[in-house]
């Protein structure tokens, strides 16, 4: 799928988690719901860091372009080192390592540890990166005709405001993990969810997605998981734009209202 659909699906997924958490007796404070939805929307763009034309690869100027080259090279090297006889030869690393459950869990765990150990500035950094990505994904029409600096400023302002709100007692710094020293441990959860939602979205497209790596399936370790070929669609097609994106909006709205106790 394309960036806007990925971001929208990520936000909808976290709002759905909020509804499920409320039903399970662990309701999210509204700042956690809002902040998590935006982080998840941004994280749903992150797996495409292995592609030079992706939104995330352009979002932070030369830094993200350089990081894209590094991630692509690492992904390609891992693919070549672990592929089985049935896996095809590839010239790049797109839709390999960063599109697996392993990557999602590792990145999410890293964000949790960073947030827990790094203090306020680490939390601000995590929020800033994901706010910028959320803006690029959810407000893509405006972001594309705006300057990068304005997007970064909006991301920084959003991160600062959200961090200040979350720091207030009862607003969610210790949601779900309440032991001393576990503040913001939950920040890794929307990161994991966003990456997995991205992978599932890509699995619905023509090329499929190797979500299950390194688990071998048949003669392939990088098996492109997906529905039957007749049910797949091309990224950016009318199915994505006119069917899935409206569905994501409706599901996100219902999930958000349910999480807040309105329905």
TrEMBL record:
Transmembrane segments: 30-49, 97-115, 121-142, 149-166, 241-262
Keywords of this entry: Membrane, Transmembrane, Transmembrane helix
Pfam families for the chain: YdjM
InterPro entries given in the database record: YdjM-like (IPR007404)
Protein name: Membrane protein
